[in-house]
Design a protein that fits this description.
Length: about 450
């Protein structure tokens, strides 16, 4: 039973739970997914596993997640060496130690992941459609993956394709995603989002089965609305006046398309589209709305997203979600959460709590230090506040207080932790102790 079956006047979780119980309805269980970073970084002791060890750990944890009943295993995708980019003239993450991620070909890893498991579904978090050849090449890869995955008529597990422009800009630069002139240089922070819209249009229409011609794809027209301040917009206008020899500042600036091509269609074209779920890694309302004009596209939520943004996103998506996807559900937006759970034997509840907080402090501190200069400090605080930290009792209570009963939690256990056996124990404690305790409390 979904909440829209009742007249709900509040988004408050406690209010919703009480209404279910008064109607004699059990509170539906939250959905629980898991995130795998496969991030080859130094642990607290400074040790860095080999690439082979990283993938061995991934498959151990994936198979554990499959046995425990996690819904979707989301795999981080990255491209190119993070260490090497530190020597570039404009490094994006100059302080990062190690490699941000080792999954550089999601389709291949997804197929191997399906082969090794029975029930868990697989997702990307996220594929950059600007890198690795751009949206056309990425659409072909996804189509081929679905064709092979769907050859078994009894296969019903879905491939969840999370896609975005990619957070780390250096990964797309070698593929031509750089400013082409002075106007684009001045507009770049806003323009990169527009390139994603153009690429997203191509990517989705090709996966839909369309014949696509770039003369009819998304056109970028910059206006004041694309920029955070009048000052930022004026810099772009001034660049346009100089570059194009204009007599006055333009109110609109037309940007030539990034992808230019005649009619094309990807093959295979008759893969089982019912096995495909699309999820956009963007909180830009315009992008969310535009992408859903093509196909049903869900959205990701980061651990650093503020509650008001989450609720605004749900309200918007309820209005703009493509009708082919059905009615928008809260579970359509996975909510990433760091999990620092300690249920280790031989420790008291207080000792488990203390250890969990120490583990969280060390891991989060290392992460934010690695990302120095790339993220708003206020978001750092939000991330710590949103993390699930403590013993079983504490994590269960935090989950009840912070999440809506219909949310989908994407739990992140391997965060700067290369003790794979311990990660699996934490996953087991989460699904076998925390989740039942949450469900019991919500229904009492």
């Amino acid at each position: 039973m979904r909440s829209e079956d009742y007249v709900i006047l509040s988004n408050d979780s406690a209010t919703l739970v009480m209404m279910w119980l008064r109607l004699g309805r059990p509170v539906p269980p939250m959905d629980h997914d898991i995130f795998f970073s496969i991030s080859q970084t130094p642990d607290a002791a400074g040790q860095v596993p080999t690439e082979n060890e990283m993938f061995e750990h991934y498959f151990q944890q994936l198979e554990c997640a499959d046995r425990l009943g996690f819904g979707v295993g989301w795999i981080a995708q990255a491209h190119l060496s993070t260490e090497t980019q530190k020597s570039n003239s404009r490094p994006v993450v100059p302080h990062w130690q190690g490699e941000v991620g080792l999954c550089t070909d999601f389709p291949q890893l997804a197929m191997e992941s399906f082969r090794r498991t029975k029930s868990i579904e697989i997702g990307s978090a996220v594929v950059s459609i600007l890198a690795s050849g751009g949206p056309i090449a990425q659409a072909e890869r996804i189509a081929n993956t679905l064709q092979l995955h769907g050859l078994n008529p009894n296969e019903h597990r879905k491939l969840h394709v999370g896609f975005s422009a990619g957070r780390f800009e250096f990964m797309a630069r070698p593929y031509g995603i750089v400013p082409r002139n002075a106007v684009e240089e001045a507009a770049w922070p806003a323009l990169r989002g527009q390139i994603f819209m153009e690429a997203g249009d191509i990517f989705l229409r090709l996966l839909r089965g369309d014949v696509v011609n770039s003369s009819h794809t998304y056109e970028t027209i910059l206006t004041r609305n694309n920029f955070r301040s009048d000052e930022d917009w004026k810099k772009v206008q001034d660049a346009a006046v100089e570059f194009e020899g204009l007599n006055s500042a333009p109110e609109e600036i037309h940007i030539p398309r990034r992808y230019v091509f005649e009619d094309l269609k990807i093959v295979p074209s008759h893969f089982r589209r019912g096995l495909l779920e699309l999820v956009a890694g963007t909180h830009d309302p315009r992008a969310q709305t535009f992408l859903n004009s093509v196909l049903p596209v869900k959205v990701f939520n980061l651990s650093i997203t503020k509650p008001e943004v989450i609720e605004a996103t749900h309200a918007r998506m309820s209005e703009v979600f493509h009708p082919d996807g059905g009615a928008w559900q809260r579970s359509d937006m996975p909510r990433t959460s760091f999990v620092f759970l300690n249920a280790e034997d031989g420790l008291t509840l207080e000792q488990q709590s203390t250890a969990a907080h120490q583990e969280a402090k060390a891991a989060l501190g290392a992460y934010w230090n690695a990302l120095e200069g790339t993220i708003d400090p206020s978001k750092v605080s939000n991330a710590a506040n949103n993390a699930l930290i403590g013993n079983v009792e504490e994590v269960a209570q935090q989950m009840i207080e912070r999440f809506h009963p219909e949310d989908r939690i994407m739990a992140w256990f391997d965060f700067f932790n290369h003790d794979s056996d311990r990660v699996c124990r934490d996953m087991e404690a989460y699904m076998e102790q925390v989740v039942p305790l949450v469900e019991a409390r919500l229904n009492r």
